[in-house]
């Protein structure tokens, strides 16, 4: 084989992987790239449903940043995200520790923990809404039975704060199964001989958790934290189903994802809806960038 033939052969071998990846790359460009570019383009135009109106440049972004309703929705989204992520992560860790304890009945408990994962979120939201109903809800009945008469006929969805509490509880409940299974798998990876040695040295269960188990689980916890943050920031179905009207009462449970939907599909302002979508994208891009940086520091 001549030198030129060998060079052509190497060039062909380099091209083959790109040819094999081409269909997937084209599919990704169509499924992800086009909607993203279209959203950016719409955000720079006047809203006319989902059609392109007149060019307005950054007007939608300026109006979005200076609008009090958007600012309140953003703060509410951050608060709801923080509460649901921290609450679900802590609850999942505690449940995973119980499941990893080896006590009798843990297999049955594992099945019960996973069950909410199989339930459609809209159906679960309807059940939670019924549970907190002011007249027929089981929550008010239980609290009243415990002597808390203030909850007799209490309207959870009549106040923005209490409505957000109910929504947060429903979101945390929905997140727990996946987070628990992932943390349980991470706990299984902790070397048992190290844990046993620490216990023989007199370390308490809390110190074993804090000094041994959590450091080993740290990479998994970081990944779960990022995924939970992204999902919580995009929460939509629970608030849409559980509050009447969606985001009520008086916009007190309105978050960015719901406001984006209302602007684009209820008020037919595709420009503002697209601008709000880009705001959500920017925040989640920052969260993802922080995760990548943490991962690099872990491997450095």
Tell me what the structure shows.
- The chain is mostly helical.
- It folds into 2 domains: 1-43; 63-299, Orthogonal Bundle (MetI-like fold), CATH 1.10.3720.
- Helices cover 76% and strands 3% of the residues.
- It contains 12 helices and 2 strands, in the order H-E-E-H-H-H-H-H-H-H-H-H-H-H.
- The protein has helices at residues 3-43, 59-66, 68-99, 106-118, 121-131, 138-145, 160-188, 192-200, 205-233, 237-242, 256-266, 270-299, and strands at 45-48, 51-55.
- It has a two-stranded antiparallel ribbon with strand order 1-2.
- A hairpin with a 2-residue loop joins strand 1 and strand 2.
- Helix 1 (3-43) crosses helix 12 (270-299).
- The radius of gyration is 25 Å and the shape is flat.
- The model has no long low-confidence stretch (mean pLDDT 88).
- Keywords: Cell membrane, Membrane, Transmembrane, Transmembrane helix, Transport.
- One of its GO terms (biological process) is transmembrane transport.
- Residues 74-291 form the ABC transmembrane type-1 domain.
Keywords:
76% helix, 3% strand, mainly alpha, 12 helices, MetI-like fold, single chain, 300 residues, two-stranded antiparallel sheet
H/E topology pattern: HEEHHHHHHHHHHH
- Helical stretch count? 12
| Molecular shape | flat
For the biggest β-sheet, the strand order reads 1-2
Instruction: Name the CATH class of the largest domain.
Output: Mainly Alpha
Mean pLDDT: 88
CATH topology of the largest domain: MetI-like fold
Tell me about the largest β-sheet: 2 strands, antiparallel
Beta-strand percentage range: under 5%
């Amino acid at each position: 084989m001549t030198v030129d033939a060998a060079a052509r052969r190497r060039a062909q071998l380099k091209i083959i992987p790109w040819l094999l990846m081409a269909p997937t790359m084209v599919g990704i460009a169509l499924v992800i790239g086009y909607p993203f570019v279209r959203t950016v383009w719409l955000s720079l135009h006047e809203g006319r449903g989902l059609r392109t109106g007149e060019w307005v440049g950054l007007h939608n972004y300026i109006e979005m940043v200076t609008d009090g309703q958007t600012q309140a929705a953003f703060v509410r989204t951050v608060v709801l995200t923080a509460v649901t992520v921290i609450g679900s992560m802590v609850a999942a860790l505690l449940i995973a520790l119980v499941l990893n304890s080896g006590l009798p009945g843990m297999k049955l408990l594992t099945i019960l923990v996973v069950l909410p994962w199989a339930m459609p979120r809209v159906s679960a939201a309807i059940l939670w809404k019924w549970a907190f109903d002011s007249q027929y809800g089981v929550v008010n009945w239980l609290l009243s039975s415990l002597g808390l008469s203030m909850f007799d006929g209490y309207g959870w969805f009549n106040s923005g704060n209490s409505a957000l509490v109910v929504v947060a509880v429903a979101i945390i409940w929905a997140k727990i199964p996946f987070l628990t299974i992932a943390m349980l798998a991470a706990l299984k990876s902790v070397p048992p001989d190290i844990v046993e040695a620490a216990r023989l040295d007199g370390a308490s269960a809390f110190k074993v958790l804090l000094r041994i188990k959590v450091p080993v689980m740290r990479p998994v916890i970081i990944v779960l934290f990022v995924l939970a943050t992204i999902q919580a920031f995009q929460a939509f179905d629970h608030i849409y189903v559980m509050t009447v009207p969606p985001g009520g009462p008086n916009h007190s449970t309105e978050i960015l994802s719901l406001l984006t939907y209302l602007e684009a599909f209820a008020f037919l302002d595709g420009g503002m809806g697209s601008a709000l979508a880009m705001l959500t994208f920017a925040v989640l891009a920052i969260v993802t960038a922080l995760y990548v940086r943490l991962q690099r520091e872990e491997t450095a």
